[in-house]
Amino acid sequence: MVMDKEVCFGIVESIESLWERRELVDFTVQVENHEIKCHRFILGACSKFFSAMFRSGMKDSQNDFAVIEHVSRDIFVDILRALYTGSDVLTQDNVIAVWHASNLLQIDVMIRQCENKVVQWLTVENFENMSINAKLSDSKRVLETIFDFMLANFEKVRDTQTFLEMSPGRFLDFIESYKLVVGSEDLVLESILKWIEYSPEGFPNSSVTSFVAKSSSEMVVANFTTETSSKNTENELNASTSFETKILKTCVSNSSVGDSASDTSKADAKSVVPHIKQENKPKRLDMLTDLIKAARTCLASPGCLQWLYGNPLCESLPEVKDVLFKASMYHCSGQGHLLRASSHRIGSELEHFAVFSTHKEIKAYSMERDEVFQIPLCGALSAHSMRFLISENDIYTFRGNSSIYILRGYTWQTMFSLNNNAPNLINHDNFFWELNGQYGKINKFNLRNANETVSPFVDLPANVERVDLCLSWNKRILLFSNEYNNTNQINETIVHSLDVSLKTWTKLENMNESMAWAKSFRDDTTTYILQTTGEVWAVLERTPDVITFECLGKMWVKPKSILGAVIYERELIIFGNNDTNDLPDITKLSCPPDSFTKIRCYSYSDNIYSNVVFAALPKKYYPSPSK
């Protein structure tokens, strides 16, 4: 039905005249010993409370008189004025009282108006009071808005009672949220411990000596693009020390972390561990593992990881120690895998992009904004024949036996030259490895010292003439090479594993599938291989010496072009040059991973000629066009 505004205004004006002249009143409401004359049709039309009273034949209704308690005269008059005249009667002084009275009288239109104003007037100073009243009013809408407000203002609200009193499930959602705006993930991890140990009787509880507070002026925002951090971890790459020693060394060597954090020994870390109130301990302490898993631990500073690892609460939980260990290894590996624990939140200065080249251009696709941006061309290389690599979030490009270039900010810089044509060049443990079946060798390049190379590092296995797929997997490099019969048909795929530390090859079980043009992707725990024919394989380590490949199913039938794949915010995105037929179907996987719940194919308007890599790039270089 189309509403005529002129007619609507006319009706409101007529009703307003009834209010002003108090004509035809037929019902009296008593509030605070004051009698207020009203009209049944207004009360019954706007208030479910009065409507039910009038229909029920209650004594008050029959007597044309009702007493309302818990509502002041002024507030009731404000509500009537709004109902009769359509006036905006809400102020920051009366909105809460009007809100509660409207809930009591079940006046939906006023409830909505009050909620609109509460949301509009929300501030850091009043959000706690608004939260209390939203709970009293059972306003899910306002509570959700306050939740989002706290996400956007995390650093200002993280020490408040409302934050620390969040329920376990709600707090887990908060820590896990992509919308949480924070300058350093260290603050999130510290807040987890504060929430674990919080007790209302002791508020504010200061038993957590803040790791961040000790060095707030020098706090590290985990940014893997900085040259400093890559240099600082160089001596850690091949260390055989324990995790605790490795983290401590990394922490001390990182000049960006404050002395108070860097010099914290394991004993010192124990001294700042929160005391858990006994009545708080069972529920909250049981949440610690899930909360640490929910945080972006790979974005935390080495000093913060060391601080957590030395915490007795974390020491007592093997799963937490494993998460912290993997986060430390992420710092050292430089693989550039987009893990959930390394996924930047919406407020970060960095954003996740897929980088590829077309026939003439280099493109950066924002997975957050679903927009494509331009990256400057590397003058010495043709876009259509470029290859890309990622190490410590830096993007490298090369072509055949040309030089290798690195993207610094928004320009390309030369690093070093390749000696041979290198169709297979991978990053493993912060080194580039050149695999060339033609020469039967593997060369190793130090990314931090262009003049330092190890050539050759080790011979390829004798029967490997061509490498169809190579993976950096844990501390090994896996090689997949197809074996052909006399009619040039693929018999099977031969798989070898190189233990880099021992420089030894291990022959793995052959696969009856072709790995030509296959791509790999990862979640937080597992590496997967995706074939062009739709099969998905999980790489599994049964024992330290036994590596197997488990087929999880076949997601499509017709072969597809696959140039890269990544899991982003629980969605598997497959990049290639494909039509829209025979789309991937996750339900065809017999054991679908928990890390993604949906699948999407991405094809650019022009054909993609290069491989697709994934990196977190500074947002400032890729602003969205003004709309």
From TrEMBL:
CDD domains: BTB_POZ_ZBTB_KLHL-like. This is BTB domain-containing protein. InterPro entries: BACK (IPR011705), BTB/POZ_dom (IPR000210), Gal_Oxase/kelch_b-propeller (IPR011043), Kelch-typ_b-propeller (IPR015915), SKP1/BTB/POZ_sf (IPR011333). PANTHER family: LD33804P. Pfam families: BACK (PF07707), BTB (PF00651). The lineage of its organism: Eukaryota, Metazoa, Spiralia, Lophotrochozoa, Mollusca. Signal peptide: none annotated. Keywords: Kelch repeat, Repeat. The keyword Lipid biosynthesis does not apply. The keyword Repeat applies. Residues 25-92 form the BTB domain.
